[in-house]
Amino acid sequence: MHVVDARAFDAVSDAVDQVNKIKGAKAAAAWDESSKFDTEKDKSAFRQYEAACERVKNFYREQHEKQTVAYNIQVRQNFKKTVRARMGIWEAMETLDKLVDDSDPDTSVTQIEHLLQTAEAIRRDGKPEWMQAAGLVHDLGKLLFFFDAQGQWDVVGDTFVVGCKYSDKIIYHETFAGNPDSKDSIYSSEYGVYAPHCGLENVMLSWGHDEYLYHVLKNQSSLPVDALYMIRYHSFYPWHREGAYSHLTNADDERALVAVKAFNPYDLYSKSDDPVDPVKLKPYYEELIAKFFPEVIEW
Ligand SMILES: [Fe+2]
Ligand SMILES: [Fe+2]
Question: Is 101 annotated as belonging to a binding site?
């Protein structure tokens, strides 16, 4: 594994979430009315995170300049070439937690806590086991940071479509000016390399922990398609919150959108729930893991 600055990684990852909470607070009524667990929380409390914006903007500038079509083709080819690790889900959770937590004692919520809090909030609302399982694993793709990522820009942050015009609904859209694809006559056109309504399944989303985990789990789990949608699209805010890309989506994506919107509040707002005890929860989740995943996964 790479020697990396896990503290900086977690700080950026947290700040990205914070900005999405701020934006979410503004649009809250539109999409989280069906989730019960967070209705008591004061979403205005998340305004304190406005300070995160400057750090986040610098992060997005780098990401938006480097997530090109060429990079995305290359990284997908590399993905298929190697197995980076062999381990089960719980071990992956502990590995991610240890790697980040070792160098960042100040982080508000550890990685394993975030995964368990997300799953627990879903469980508490009486949602199905497959959705609890999706919540439990949804950020394990962040292990990428310790494998072969080039930085934070290809692990975390909101995702978007590459290979066509960068939507103006993408956060800090203006920072795409430095991406060479913005000057490419095809990649900067409305449909780019895609056919109208070809479906998200057929577009290339910017590479990061969502896309990586989706590719790892689609053939190594018995998760239903809605769980895979939650995993693959949970950072795809320009689409699931801002309504971009309706010229590319198809009927399947309507279903995906319902799933992702149902999942999003658990990801964003469960961090302020009561602390969880991994030791106590482990037996329940080990049993859940066994229902949907093989003992060992090739990462
Ligand atoms: Fe995530
Ligand atoms: Fe998350």
Answer: yes
Cα separations (Å) of 143 from 45, 167, 288?
30, 28, 21
CA of 17 to the centre of ligand 2 (A): 8
CA of 197 to the centre of ligand 1 (A): 26
Let me know: does 153 contact 63? Beta carbons within 8 Å.
yes
For the stretch 252-298, pLDDT in tens is 999 999 999 999 999 999 988 889 999 999 999 999 999 999 999 99
- CA 156, distance to chain mean position in Å, is 7
The pLDDT tens digits for 167-198 are 999 999 999 999 999 999 999 999 999 999 99
| Protein residues placing their CB within 5 Å of the ion ligand 2 | 139, 267
**CB under 5 Å of ion ligand 1: residues:** 139
